[in-house]
Design a protein that fits this description.
alpha/beta, 9 strands
């Protein structure tokens, strides 16, 4: 029996079967071979409670049949204000450990799954919301987006993967500044340090994200698999292991029937050349 991560894009549950598994705080909307997964807790600035995090894990464990890319969006004016503090009950150390590991497991399903994810960032992208955003592969930011890690001011420490993902994007020294001083980065500052890939106008985030997701969905599945699964591991490996993994992945990709057809299309001028 194959695991969810080993299923082909054409298999898996139907869209309706996926909807049944999701909590009310998440909706899924089809756009051809792209699905929009949307946070729907706008009254709480899309703060993340446990059912929402587990719903994210469930969606990426068994995404809808035929989907090749996902846009992660949010209702209202904010992407996510982080952990829903009303759910922060008194836990002993082991219970706190298990809760953090649950967030890690859910967000890793997103980051290391088979579907490329484009996140639309607006308003609050703070705490656990930033942890969720940095698990996505591409991030599109609107002018209203702002970034913060307020755990330091609340006597807490990040627990959803920020201490691993955020320093890889902006450096440990910038993350330390955000946690120690409560510094808030606006959309332009966040873009300058690497928290977003694209900066768009107000209200343009979803449209741009869908455009990017459709482009990604049109890639060879083997190439998308290599980018999501091999590339991060190569980046983390020592050079000798990295070069070997690159060679193996390049050989697999080049040998695919789709790659051969695409190369023939290019050589026979049936595909456009790269331009500005």
């Amino acid at each position: 029996m194959t695991s969810p991560d080993e299923r082909e894009p054409g298999s898996g549950p139907t869209e309706e079967e996926v909807r049944v598994l999701l909590p009310p705080s998440l909706t899924v909307e089809p756009y051809g071979d792209v699905a929009v997964l949307r946070l729907c807790r706008s009254a709480k600035r899309n703060a993340l409670d446990d059912p929402t995090v587990l719903g994210i894990e469930a969606f990426f464990s068994a995404p809808p049949r035929g989907v090749k890319a996902v846009v992660l969006d949010a209702d209202g004016d904010h992407f996510s204000a982080g952990l829903d503090l009303s759910e922060l009950t008194e836990r002993d150390a082991f219970e706190g450990l298990e809760h953090s590991l649950m967030w890690h497991r859910a967000f890793e399903r997103l980051e290391r799954g088979r579907l490329p994810v484009v996140a639309v960032l607006k308003g609050a992208v703070i705490g656990g919301g930033l942890e969720l955003a940095t698990a996505a592969h591409i991030r599109v930011a609107e002018p209203s987006a702002f970034y913060a890690l307020p755990e330091g001011q609340r006597g807490l420490f990040v627990g959803g993967g920020a201490s691993v993902r955020v320093p890889r994007l902006i450096g440990a020294h910038r993350m330390a500044d955000m946690m120690l001083t409560g510094r808030v980065l606006d959309a332009d500052e966040g873009h300058a340090v690497g928290l977003s890939h694209y900066r768009v106008g107000a209200g343009e985030g979803l449209g741009r994200a869908l455009e990017l997701a459709r482009t990604i969905a049109s890639n060879s599945p083997v190439t998308n698999f290599a980018v999501l699964q091999a590339l991060p591991r190569i980046a983390e490996a020592n050079p000798a292991e990295g070069y070997l993994m690159e060679s193996l992945m390049a050989a697999v990709a080049t040998a695919s029937d789709e790659a051969k057809q695409r190369m023939q299309d290019f050589l026979h001028k049936r595909a456009g050349k790269v331009g500005r």
